[in-house]
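Figure 3 (text version): structure tokens given as input.
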């Protein structure tokens, strides 16, 4: 079985600051790092490090070779990652002393996906496989439709939150992933969930809640000393989907994902902060 991901690939530039700037204020950064990021790349890396076979579908610009090489170094299959002459996606990230962050994202090549390439990449997909989607690329709805036709389950991270994008994709979604703010925005937009769609709401350090019909499953968070929370939600998402794809129930999949996300915030970076499965299992061992 396989986890496919139509997902963003970004060059992250991270600035560590004593505190986050107020509007109109200039502050001095204490450190600057460049690394692989993007919600799609982060989720692909997490699913791969959790033990899944992962095929990434994406696009980078002329300067994006290093992003693809780093993504592949984590065990993600990248033969369906294309390159064009325009700029790659990138993100500017500020992280404060408490590990909180603010992020500005430029879509770049992520907005220039090709539907024929997506169709070709999903050509071998079928029942038992999963497709990961987020709101940082073009063609989410078309990809979700192609997946549904093939019997592939779709996990959709509705971030950055956009109500109309969610409405278009939602009819094809098996698992909707939201943080607490996005869950509130969902309700404010008056969007009704399909009866067969599960919702997974992440709650930061408090953990996460799985909702399906009247059923509720709560996963507690793990107390750790946070260094950088960038990508923690993506780490959680990738681990959860890898667990479900492997046949684990939501409760077990969430426990692994919560531990992985907790470990990820104890180190700087996004994709590079994702722990492997062995480390997660050691963390969970009594």
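Below: residues designed for each position.
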């Amino acid at each position: 079985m396989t986890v496919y991901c139509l997902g963003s690939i970004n060059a992250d530039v991270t600035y560590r600051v004593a505190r986050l700037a107020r509007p109109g204020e200039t502050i001095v950064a204490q450190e600057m790092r460049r690394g692989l990021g993007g919600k799609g790349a982060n989720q692909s890396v997490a699913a791969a490090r959790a033990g899944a076979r992962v095929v990434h579908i994406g696009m980078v610009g002329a300067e994006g070779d290093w992003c693809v090489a780093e993504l592949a170094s984590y065990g993600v299959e990248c033969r369906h990652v294309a390159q064009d002459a325009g700029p790659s996606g990138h993100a500017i990230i500020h992280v404060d002393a408490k590990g909180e962050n603010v992020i500005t994202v430029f879509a770049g090549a992520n907005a220039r996906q090709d539907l024929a390439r997506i169709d070709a990449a999903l050509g071998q997909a079928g029942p038992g496989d999963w497709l990961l989607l987020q709101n940082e690329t073009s063609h989410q709805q078309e990809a979700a439709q192609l997946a549904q036709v093939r019997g592939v389950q779709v996990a959709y991270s509705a971030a950055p939150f956009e109500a109309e994008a969610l409405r278009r994709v939602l009819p094809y979604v098996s698992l909707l992933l939201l943080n607490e703010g996005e869950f509130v925005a969902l309700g404010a937009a008056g969007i009704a969930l399909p009866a067969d769609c599960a919702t997974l709401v992440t709650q930061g350090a408090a953990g996460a809640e799985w909702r399906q019909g009247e059923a509720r499953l709560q996963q507690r968070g793990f107390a750790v000393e946070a260094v950088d929370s960038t990508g923690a939600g993506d780490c959680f998402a990738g681990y959860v989907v890898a667990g479900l794809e492997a046949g684990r129930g939501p409760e077990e999949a969430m426990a692994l994902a919560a531990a992985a996300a907790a470990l990820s915030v104890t180190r700087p970076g996004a994709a590079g902060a994702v722990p492997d499965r062995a480390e997660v299992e050691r963390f969970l061992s009594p």
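DSSP finds nine helices and 13 strands in the chain.
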